[in-house]
């Protein structure tokens, strides 16, 4: 029987749920390529993610954009197939293949139906082992990216994100420039540079293959060895760079003619993902801006109605992160929105409440099983072990790490990781309606970088 | 295919609320997905955007749920949630650990039955601000962001339910009063105008009792809600002549949009139109992409799609010109390819490629409980049969060379269209 309803009372949960973490299996192929595998049999699908530590951070000086252009050319023909035929071969068997470049790494993604596993891996292997990397494709892809860069200037969000990286990470830092590079640099790149990335940086020794889906460890090991193990290692692994930059409270404005909104980015450099205070920072961020019910969104959206949404996050890269608050508001509310965000960041020194901490902790712990629902989610989780050099038992100890945090830990993380005196405050909007508001904030002089964040 | 055959039970409560249950115990999760049969197509000219604004008001609390608490409770339980509004319907959904199902039922039933006691001017003013900013962020301040509303307002005649954008026009959004909002609620948010899908790992023995407990006492609205008066206005829409529109905006590259009237969702031809769009621009080797983006590099991108709504639909092709290439050149190549298709049709390989990609995306969509729940509601809404995954896939298997040629001729070659050009401001004659 179901008891009577009292609508004024929030219903209690019915019992406890049982959740078993998927088991991660680890092995190496004959060429030493590391493999992480989670078996998932509910659908006849497999998802692969090859992560190679050769992202845009390896771009040489004056050739920013090289790694990205390499990923654009890599699947433009391989083995006996030209670019179009290769893409057709995947389509015909309903497989999806793609390559993306990030700051730290490049990632090749493959999703295949179980019935077409062999053929999909054969094509995947062909791209790894016999890419054409021909001049004609290279020139075409270069023209394509140059046009994309021209188009970016239309998008205030993109301008804000790109310029903010530059301002926060600072000149000379490998994370300071956009993954796709700069126009002049891209014009310096030759097909020889692309081939040299393939020879010297794209390599099993600095790569990991993540697999989720309908197979067994044994079957997978055999097939992967068959199709991928002649991919040979030659790479020189580069030592990571130390990333440090002391920010100074500053206001920046990038003029966007006719803009009816202001894109706002406020933040500073912060520490690595595998630092000890990660979990405390994670809960802290959920309280200040990490979800809908966080302080900043409730203030700017639900109280003031300035914006469709406002969030904060730690944007993690391998060697550093950014603490970042972002939103877009109607031009007339630019100054007020910045004031409110600064107020919220200043308030962190007063600490969080028990209720806030309970809420944040409960939301992230209870959400945990839902993070392992789809092939894509599990692949992303496994990839994060690789991307941020997390310990093998990271997922097993996740809940305990959160449960063991005390309010003092979270408050300490706030004091140590949020620095109102180091913030870069960037606005991309129409100078005519925004400049006066920024001056009236009386924070610093208003600096006007170009759209790439160059001061 | 067996895995696309979804086991479900459908029934109605006395107040008319339709319920669809799908049990799935693979994970300790449950998805709650509620469709109200109201969208922007129920609005009137001069009063646009209220269906979407109303969706926002549904998150502002109800009699027993204070403002901001709906989000907070679901997130505290480890759930995710949102809502969305289209021409045809408004949906609300949560996915959460299965032991928190009652929480979602309580929240959804409180706002279905008891929203009005908690409605205040302050909340409405706040959400008018939020939605105005949503419109600025997603449309007015986006490059090419107004293309869709320009196209639909010219493609569909004045007063047609699809002739304005779902977000609404800014002046309309700002005009709404408490009476408008409560009137909308009374008219459209009756349990008899909604379908509740629950999918996932719920306890089978008492699920119906639990649903009754939360939803039984909500009375059906006295107004007849299951009826869109707008639908009767214009049954068969045709353009009287080709329409050409040119706009100058703050953009770097020129872009052209073509739109043709086609037909409604799950009509006899929208499967062939979907496959046609895939053959034109669905992949690197598709016809327009290969020719315009790869071989000749006259376009930076090109895309085609069929939009299918409950009352009508249209087919669109959009292409962005590379610097130095004229839009008339793009137009010429697009129409040349259409002409070619209309005469010579498609190859066997193209057909099987598209069909295999479609099959694989059906399997792919089965990964997510909330996607399955939303699909059950979708099929129930448009086809009156929730378990239509296999039926839907079969429609695509049945597409032939002849059916593609026939839709090209019927809807494109022998049909009038709109051409919208968006060009950089500095190309504008006389500055």
Report on this model:
The complex is a heterodimer of chains A (455) and B (431). In chain A, the strands form two sheets. A six-stranded mixed β-sheet of chain A has the order 1-2-6-3-5-4, with helices on both faces. Chain A has helices spanning 66-74, 83-92, 117-129, 135-152, 156-169, 183-188, 191-200, 217-228, 278-290, 295-303, 334-347, 354-367, 375-387, 398-403, 407-417, 431-440, and strands at 25-28, 34-39, 45-52, 96-101, 106-113, 207-213, 250-255, 261-270, 307-316, 321-330, 424-429, 446-447. The mean pLDDT of chain A is 94. Chain A has 455 residues and is of the alpha+beta class. In chain A, helix 3 (117-129) runs parallel beside helix 8 and helix 9 crosses helix 15. Chain A is globular and about 65 Å long. Helices cover 40% and strands 18% of the residues of chain A. Chain A folds into two domains: 25-228, Metalloenzyme, LuxS/M16 peptidase-like (Cytochrome Bc1 Complex, Chain A, domain 1), CATH 3.30.830; 250-447, 2-Layer Sandwich (Cytochrome Bc1 Complex, Chain A, domain 1), CATH 3.30.830.10. Chain B has 431 residues and is an alpha+beta fold. Chain B folds into two domains: 7-223, Cytochrome Bc1 Complex, Chain A, domain 1 (2-Layer Sandwich), CATH 3.30.830.10; 243-427, Metalloenzyme, LuxS/M16 peptidase-like (Cytochrome Bc1 Complex, Chain A, domain 1). Chain B has 15 helices and eleven strands. Chain B has helices at 50-57, 69-76, 101-113, 121-140, 147-155, 170-175, 178-188, 207-215, 270-281, 287-295, 327-344, 348-365, 369-383, 389-397, 401-413; strands spanning 9-12, 18-23, 29-36, 80-85, 90-97, 194-200, 243-249, 255-261, 299-308, 313-321, 417-424. In chain B, strands 1-2-6-3-5-4 form a six-stranded mixed β-sheet, sandwiched between helices. A five-stranded mixed β-sheet of chain B has the order 7-11-8-10-9, sandwiched between helices. In chain B, strand 1 (9-12) and strand 2 form a beta hairpin. Chain B is globular and about 65 Å long. The mean pLDDT of chain B is 94. Classes of the chains: A alpha+beta (455), B alpha+beta (431). At the A-B interface, helix 2, helix 4, helix 10, strand 10 and helix 12 of A face helix 2, strand 5, helix 3, helix 4 and helix 8 of B.
């Amino acid at each position: 029987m179901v008891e009577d309803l009292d609508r004024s009372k929030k219903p209690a949960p019915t019992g406890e749920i049982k959740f078993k973490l998927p088991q991660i299996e680890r092995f190496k192929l004959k060429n030493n390529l590391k493999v992480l595998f989670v078996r998932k049999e509910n659908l006849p699908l497999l998802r692969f993610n090859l992560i190679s530590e050769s992202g845009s951070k390896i771009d040489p000086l004056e050739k920013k954009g090289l790694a990205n252009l390499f990923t654009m050319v890599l699947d433009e023909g391989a083995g006996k197939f030209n670019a179009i035929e290769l893409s057709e071969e995947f389509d015909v068997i309903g497989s999806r293949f793609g390559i993306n470049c990030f700051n730290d790494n490049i990632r090749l993604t493959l999703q295949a139906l179980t019935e077409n596993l062999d053929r999909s891996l054969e094509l995947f292997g062909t791209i790894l082992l016999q890419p054409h990397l021909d001049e004609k494709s290279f020139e075409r892809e270069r023209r394509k990216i140059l046009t994309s860069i021209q188009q970016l200037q239309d998008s205030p969000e993109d301008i804000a994100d790109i310029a903010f990286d530059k301002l926060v990470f600072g000149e000379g830092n490998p994370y300071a420039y956009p993954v796709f590079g700069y126009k002049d640099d891209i014009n310096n790149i030759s097909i020889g540079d692309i081939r040299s990335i393939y020879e010297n940086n794209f390599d099993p020794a600095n790569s990991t293959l993540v697999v989720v889906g309908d197979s067994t460890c044994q079957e997978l090991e055999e097939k992967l060895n068959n199709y991928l193990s002649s991919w040979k290692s030659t790479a020189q692994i580069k030592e990571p760079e130390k990333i440090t930059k002391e920010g100074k409270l500053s206001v920046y404005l990038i003029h966007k003619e006719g803009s009816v909104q202001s894109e706002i980015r406020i933040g500073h450099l912060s520490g690595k993902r595998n630092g000890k205070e990660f979990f405390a920072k994670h809960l802290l961020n959920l309280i200040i801006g990490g979800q809908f019910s966080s302080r900043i969104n409730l203030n700017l959206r639900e109280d003031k109605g300035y914006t469709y949404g406002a969030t904060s996050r730690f944007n993690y890269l391998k060697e550093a992160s950014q603490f970042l608050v972002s939103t877009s508001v109607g031009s007339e509310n630019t100054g007020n929105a910045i004031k409110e965000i600064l107020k919220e960041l200043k308030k962190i020194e007063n600490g969080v409440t028990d209720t806030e901490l309970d809420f944040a902790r409960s939301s992230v712990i209870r959400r945990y099983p839902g993070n392992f629902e789809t092939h894509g989610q599990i692949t992303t989780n496994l990839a994060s072990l690789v991307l941020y050099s997390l310990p093998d038992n990271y997922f097993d100890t996740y809940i305990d790490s959160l449960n063991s945090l005390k309010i003092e830990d979270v408050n300490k993380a706030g004091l140590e990781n949020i620095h109102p005196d180091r913030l870069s405050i960037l606005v991309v909007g129409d100078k005519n309606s925004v400049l006066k508001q920024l001056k009236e904030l009386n924070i610093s002089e208003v600096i006007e970088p170009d759209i790439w964040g160059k001061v | 295919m067996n895995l696309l055959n979804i086991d479900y039970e459908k029934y109605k409560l006395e107040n008319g609320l339709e319920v669809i249950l799908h049990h799935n115990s693979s994970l300790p999760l449950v998805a709650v997905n509620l469709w109200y049969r109201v969208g922007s197509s129920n609005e009137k000219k001069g009063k646009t955007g209220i269906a979407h604004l109303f969706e926002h008001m549904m998150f502002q609390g109800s009699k027993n749920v204070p403002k901001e608490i709906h989000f907070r409770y679901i997130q505290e339980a480890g759930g995710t949630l949102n809502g969305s509004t289209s021409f045809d319907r408004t949906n609300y959904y949560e996915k959460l650990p299965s032991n928190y199902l009652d929480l979602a039922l309580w929240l959804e039933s409180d706002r279905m039955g008891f929203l009005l006691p908690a409605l205040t001017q302050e909340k409405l003013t706040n959400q008018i601000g939020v939605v105005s900013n949503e419109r600025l962020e997603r449309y007015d301040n986006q490059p090419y962001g107004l293309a869709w509303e320009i196209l639909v307002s010219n493609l569909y005649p004045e007063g047609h339910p699809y002739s304005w954008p779902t977000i609404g026009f800014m002046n309309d959004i700002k005009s709404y009063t408490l009476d408008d909002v409560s009137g909308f609620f009374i008219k459209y948010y009756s349990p008899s105008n909604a379908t509740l899908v629950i999918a996932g790992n719920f306890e089978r023995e008492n699920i119906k009792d639990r649903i009754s407990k939360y939803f039984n006492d909500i009375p059906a609205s006295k107004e007849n809600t299951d009826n869109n008066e707008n639908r009767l206005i214009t049954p068969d829409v045709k353009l009287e002549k080709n329409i050409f529109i040119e706009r100058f905006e703050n953009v770097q590259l020129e872009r052209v949009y073509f739109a043709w009237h086609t037909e409604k969702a799950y009509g006899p031809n929208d499967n062939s139109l979907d496959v046609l769009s895939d053959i034109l621009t669905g992949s690197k080797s598709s016809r327009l992409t290969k020719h315009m983006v790869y071989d000749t590099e006259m376009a930076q991108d090109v895309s085609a799609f069929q939009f299918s709504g409950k009352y009508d639909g249209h087919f669109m092709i959009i292409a962005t010109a590379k610097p130095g290439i004229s839009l008339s050149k793009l137009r010429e190549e697009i129409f040349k390819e259409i002409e070619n298709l209309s005469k010579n049709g498609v190859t066997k390989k193209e057909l099987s490629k598209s069909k295999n990609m479609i099959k694989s995306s059906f399997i792919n969509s089965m990964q997510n409980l909330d996607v399955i729940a939303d699909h059950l509601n979708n099929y129930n809404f448009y086809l009156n049969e929730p378990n239509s995954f296999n039926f839907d896939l079969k429609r695509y298997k049945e597409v032939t060379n002849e059916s593609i040629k026939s839709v090209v001729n019927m809807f494109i070659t022998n049909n009038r269209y709109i051409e919208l050009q968006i060009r950089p401001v500095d190309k504008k004659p006389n500055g």
